[in-house]
Specification:
alpha+beta, 3 strands, elongated
Length: about 70
């Protein structure tokens, strides 16, 4: 049988003034059955983080394949 694919969204928020000062955030809504849905959620998380973090930041994201956790 085919293994079900599942993806979790993560973002990394770093201060522009101190790029080594970063916080990682995992999505609490997922996982998602498609990488496209995961990417959409990661984009939403990035947008929301920029609204609530009071400092100038850079934000990176990734979708992690967590299929092995859901077999």
């Amino acid at each position: 049988s085919r293994r079900k694919r599942m993806f979790e969204a993560w973002i990394l928020i770093c201060l522009v003034s101190n790029p080594s000062e970063c916080t990682e955030a995992q999505d609490m809504r997922g996982p998602y059955a498609t990488v496209e849905r995961c990417e959409a959620r990661a984009d939403e998380m990035m947008t929301n983080s920029l609204k609530i973090v009071p400092f100038e930041t850079t934000v990176k994201w990734k979708c992690v394949d967590v299929s092995d956790n859901y077999t």
